[in-house]
Write the structure tokens for this entry.
Amino acid sequence: MGSFDKAKWVWHNSYRGKNVYVNFEDKFTLKSAPSSCKVKISCDRSYALYVNGEFAHCAQCSDYEDLKFYDEVDITGHIKPGENELFVTVYYQGISCSTYRCGEPGLIFEVIADGGVVCASSERTVAYKNSAYESGECVEWVTVQLGIGFHYDATREGEREGEKYADIVEKTYDIRPRPVKLLKIEPPKSAGLINKGVFFDLADGTPAQKMQAAALAVQYVCGSLPLPSEEGIKLSVEGSYKGHEPDGVFAIADLGEESTGLLLLDLEVPHECDVYVGWGEHLADLRVRAHVGGRNFAVKYRARAGRNAFFAPFLRLGLRYLELHVYARECKLYYTGVRPTVYPLPEPAEPPITDGLHKKIYEVACRTLQLCMHEHYEDCPWREQALYTMDSRNQMLCGYYAFGETRFPRASLELIAHSLREDSLLELCSPAEVAITIPSFSAMFLVQLWEYLDFSGDEEFVRGLLPSAERIAGGFLRRLEADGGLLKCYGERKYWDFYEWQEGLAGTIFGYVPESERTYDAPLCAFVSLGLRALASICARLGLPEKEKHYQSAHEKLNKAIDAAFFDSGRGCYASFLREGRIWHYSELTNSLAVCAGAVPEERLGSVLEAIAGGGLLPVTLSHSIFKYDALMKRREKYEKFVLDNIAELWGKMLLSGATSFWETIDGEAAFANGGSLCHGWSAVPIYVYFKYFGGK
């Protein structure tokens, strides 16, 4: 099935390596301005589209080589009578990461004016290297999840290296329309310059490393100078610095709140010089934390003499603050900030709760969700922008209530299902190629699929994914031990036995556990039990009684095994791990999962809930608090106030700390050796609680 009438896949075959940027040009002539003109476009990995010298759109929808999507961009407002020029830069990363699964390089496009194709990619399309972007493997990665950053040299703009007619390349013509809405790329976000002065380099390395280590001498810290600025804000070396010559001037800008967007820079310099641009979510280091744990949250821009206006369409930033290091004695700054990238959503539903603090929590939770939605759900916009099953389960569930949205979760579920591996588990992220995966996350996909069906009623879509869901369930069932009916941890290096970010439950990445030392894990068993019950519910809804009976029976047997193996009668609750007859490790998560999975007999429920609420167990984290609250609300009359007070305490703490979006964990930026994110979609949990128990479905 073809999606393009006349277009062909094109590339410049001299540039098929890693981290390359290629320009494509085409022209078309119209006798008069059309009433409608659109571009259909697809590529690998991302594109920036310009018409008659004006930016039109960017950002290829996340996809696979065998599940390709195209965008349809309205360019009517850019078209004129006579000759029109189409210009596309394509970024080809050429190596997989957690947000991109590498395919063959290529670009395909058609221009459709008033229903007819007036221009299409072909062997007559001009192609040449974009030499302003540094190519190859010498450019540092931002993170292993996000991919490679960029170095841009404005003095090389206009070069046409390797110019020729494009090569025709082989790729699928079964290209589907983008399954989610196009992002809104908004005008520059207002910012304020809050700090400026001079810097002294104290280290070598990447731009991020140099920015992190530099000594800063501050000239301005009071108030905020508005950006954009028509006259420009002067940055300059002033006075003596005890005989030391500064390396240049710096500035720090505040966007006022957590944001996502594309970098925009407007400044004037007296001569060619390097400009480093770092970004971050906080100023806990009295600067942007540009480098942490091997991650590089900074890019390099080589400015030409005079005024420079630069827009970066290929790397979306998650941030609140920007920091510039300009290698010149003076600079005039007109703007530094972003053009926000926003996924169009309806206004959030009115929350079914009137308390002022909880209404504010709801408002910020909704904003957190939107900041973590672009081509698919993202765990966080700053560090990863990756689609995980466990994270996106919270995001989908909260989004159903807040936005009534089912199109976006459907698209993400399809991406996730398409990543199914030969071992009957899903890739860690989608679309991606990652060296490890988390088995428990695959079990939660079954829960996500059921919840989507329950909220949307979309039986046709779910029926299409049922074979994948059954393969996942079958993989788990084959691992059940005949003696006792439990699942052991996976143990091999390609599996990460992760349950949550708490002591004893986080597993070891790329670790190996010898067969003789492998444990039976209550959290894994409970996650699989939840998945089996969800699959039974799916089969019931789809009118498949024999399959429903099969998965329901497996769910019930596993629950009995969990109760028999992990319950500690002395403590009145469940342990997390079992090996050679010994049980240990007591956590809120393990006990909450046992309750939610239905593994706790009625006569034990009271003592287990008391243990969960009593403070004596290892606490649950923000992401998995959803299981704790669901468990406690089994006895709503007793624990309703506790649940609301707990939300007020934890999420209220973030608000009192100045949060404009909710954090990855309650430890904020200090988590994970100073790598904690301050915007994480999985922390929107209160939305679910408010609607589920105070007026929702």
Q: What stands out?
A: The chain has four domains: 10-162+170-182, 185-342, 352-405+621-697, 425-595. The chain has a mean pLDDT of 96. The longest strand covers residues 248-269. The radius of gyration is 27 Å.
